[in-house]
């Protein structure tokens, strides 16, 4: 029996939640061959990851499940992207440099943010983890970024985010970039204290945050 688009979208969402890595590619191909919209299919995968985020917050899922679910979502997105013509620079909503400051080697959260931003039509320059603050500025200058994102999972590297904003101020670059921060030990209160432009508790909220910060119209 032929599935409706709604049934396919639910199946895509479920595949992410239940870590169905062996089924996801065939499901995406089947969805595409049925003639349904590619971006809506990607949204179905993201919806699944939002459910996963809720399960993580409720402590029903933990880091290992989060990683596996993110892998399944990425597999699906990669397959969907084979159906999308290559983007030009002008087609992106903006360019974002993201990385994990020096002293922190955890990048699960950063990886999820990257997936969400790319799915939301942002160009993402991922400079990796354990990165000196100078590299963030160099990458932002090189790629003409509007936004710089710093992610940290360790409280010991939180001062680096404060120091980064101070460096921008010292170089008269603070007004040139929007700075967003995130990670398990980071809070809205901390973001306000250091003068960051934005913070999200969940990677699934980052696209909406940047749309607001950059005054982009939403559909």
From TrEMBL:
<dbReference type="InterPro" id="IPR036594">
    <property type="entry name" value="Meth_synthase_dom"/>
</dbReference>
<keyword id="KW-0170">Cobalt</keyword>
<feature type="domain" description="B12-binding">
    <location>
        <begin position="93"/>
        <end position="219"/>
    </location>
</feature>
<dbReference type="GO" id="GO:0031419">
    <property type="term" value="F:cobalamin binding"/>
</dbReference>
<dbReference type="GO" id="GO:0008705">
    <property type="term" value="F:methionine synthase activity"/>
</dbReference>
<dbReference type="Pfam" id="PF02310">
    <property type="entry name" value="B12-binding"/>
</dbReference>
<keyword id="KW-0479">Metal-binding</keyword>
<dbReference type="InterPro" id="IPR050554">
    <property type="entry name" value="Met_Synthase/Corrinoid"/>
</dbReference>
<protein>
    <submittedName>
        <fullName>Corrinoid protein</fullName>
    </submittedName>
</protein>
<dbReference type="InterPro" id="IPR006158">
    <property type="entry name" value="Cobalamin-bd"/>
</dbReference>
<dbReference type="GO" id="GO:0046872">
    <property type="term" value="F:metal ion binding"/>
</dbReference>
<dbReference type="GO" id="GO:0050667">
    <property type="term" value="P:homocysteine metabolic process"/>
</dbReference>
<dbReference type="Pfam" id="PF02607">
    <property type="entry name" value="B12-binding_2"/>
</dbReference>
<dbReference type="GO" id="GO:0046653">
    <property type="term" value="P:tetrahydrofolate metabolic process"/>
</dbReference>
<comment type="similarity">
    <text>Belongs to the methylamine corrinoid protein family.</text>
</comment>
<dbReference type="InterPro" id="IPR003759">
    <property type="entry name" value="Cbl-bd_cap"/>
</dbReference>
<dbReference type="GO" id="GO:0005829">
    <property type="term" value="C:cytosol"/>
</dbReference>
<dbReference type="InterPro" id="IPR036724">
    <property type="entry name" value="Cobalamin-bd_sf"/>
</dbReference>
<feature type="domain" description="B12-binding N-terminal">
    <location>
        <begin position="1"/>
        <end position="92"/>
    </location>
</feature>
């Amino acid at each position: 029996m032929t599935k409706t688009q709604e049934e396919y979208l639910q199946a895509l969402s479920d595949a992410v939640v239940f870590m169905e890595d062996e089924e996801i590619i065939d499901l995406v191909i089947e969805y595409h061959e049925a003639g349904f919209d590619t971006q809506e299919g990607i949204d179905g995968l993201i919806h699944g990851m939002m459910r996963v985020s809720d399960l993580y917050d409720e402590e029903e899922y933990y880091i290992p499940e989060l990683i596996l679910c993110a892998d399944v979502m990425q597999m699906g997105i990669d397959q969907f992207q084979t159906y999308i013509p290559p983007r030009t620079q002008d087609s992106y909503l903006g360019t974002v440099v993201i990385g994990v400051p020096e002293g922190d080697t955890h990048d699960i959260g950063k990886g999820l943010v990257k997936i969400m931003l790319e799915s939301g039509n942002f160009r993402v320059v991922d400079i990796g983890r354990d990165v000196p603050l100078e590299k963030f500025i160099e990458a932002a200058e090189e790629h003409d970024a509007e936004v710089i994102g710093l992610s940290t999972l360790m409280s010991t590297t939180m001062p680096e985010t404060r120091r980064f904003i101070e460096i921008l101020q010292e170089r008269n670059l603070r007004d040139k970039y929007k700075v967003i921060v995130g990670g398990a030990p980071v809070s809205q209160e901390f973001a306000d204290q250091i003068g960051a432009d934005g913070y999200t508790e969940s990677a699934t909220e980052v696209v909406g945050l940047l749309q607001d910060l950059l005054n982009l119209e939403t559909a």
